[in-house]
Amino acid sequence: xxxxxxxxxxxxxxxRGALTPLPALSSLLSSLSPRSPASTRPxxxxxxxxxxxxxxxxxxxxxxxxxxxxxxxxxxxxLLPRHWSHASPLSTSSSSSRPAxxxxxxxxxxxxxxxxxxxxxxxxxxxxxxxxxxxxxxMWSITIAAMPGDLPDLKMLALFGCGAxxxxxxxxxxxxxxxxxxxxxxxxxxxxPFASGVLTPLQGVGFLGIQLLLGLGILLQLNNYSxxxxxxxxxxxxxxxxxxxxxxxxxxxxxLTFNWGALLGWAAIKESIDPAIxxxxxxxxxxxxxxxxxxxxxQDKEDDLKVGVKSTALRFGDLTKYWISGFGAACVGSLxxxxxxxxxxxxxxxxxxxxxxxxxWQVSTVDxxxxxxxxxKFVSNKWFGALVFSGILFGRLVS
Length: 399
Known about the structure:
This protein is mainly α. Helices cover 67% and strands 0% of the residues. It has helices at residues 2-15, 22-32, 49-58, 66-69, 71-77, 94-97, 107-111, 117-122, 129-144, 154-178, 180-183, 193-196, 201-219, 224-243, 250-258, 261-270, 275-297, 301-307, 312-316, 320-341, 348-365, 371-379, 381-397.
């Protein structure tokens, strides 16, 4: 108790009363202290005990005021792990006052320099699932465009992989710029860089320009047909964040955007589009997006109702599982049609059956009232994409 009282005294001396949590800390000390008056006096045999504690505190670096007043800023700047609770540091709840295990920290928390960390968070580099969901349709298309018996073009796979990282980051930047006034009202998005005030919109626009410039460098390495097709996708990227304000079907619009790589990958190899193969593949991707992003949207449905934005989660309501079951069936059927028209070999179909089983598992077991389970099922879609890719790869090798 002597140490805590000395801490209050020292923090008052340094902040000259500016730190607002000090009264709360004083109240905490009062509630924890014994009621006996003798407990408030220094030890009889050691009257300088409090002074020693103050001297020890002076050897420590001062705590920034923002650590108490705005913990979400420290999360984004990397001064605190992202998985610390936003609750008051004085909270007595064990779940809110204890940091998450080190194993839960992402590579961004561990390796990205502090100054660059807000930009990494803005591009969602700590959450690679979005990049996987954007990259898989590209990989499917590039692989299905390979010659029978050959491996897909590895250079193209690498280029489109890098492009997926950049385009996903650019899309998130646009989304957060347009939604910054909404994000600070939604629990899950409140600590994002713009909503929390760590980055300014001007900094975000500059970062967006850098991402688009790097993306242009990748696009220029493709053929002219692909350049035009790729550049046209920016219309979708920039307009998607607005859809949730006007329609209950923003997930369908996201499907058009996220699966554009199904068109672009084939075009980068063939310099054309084969509708019989690519349109069913594109349709499959759109239906897949409607499944996984509807599940994802159920995490925010209460907040969406409060702030007035729309989603298929709100549109479907209690009938969500029936709707996404239908979209899942349409996805699998379209994949089968695309593979048949592309003359893929027999290994393609067992993998598609496995992918269908994975999708059925998601739909049948997801608890739409549980945010954690919705997120778990959403993240599992990387395996659906991997199963489809493996089927196309082996089907092309034996065709």
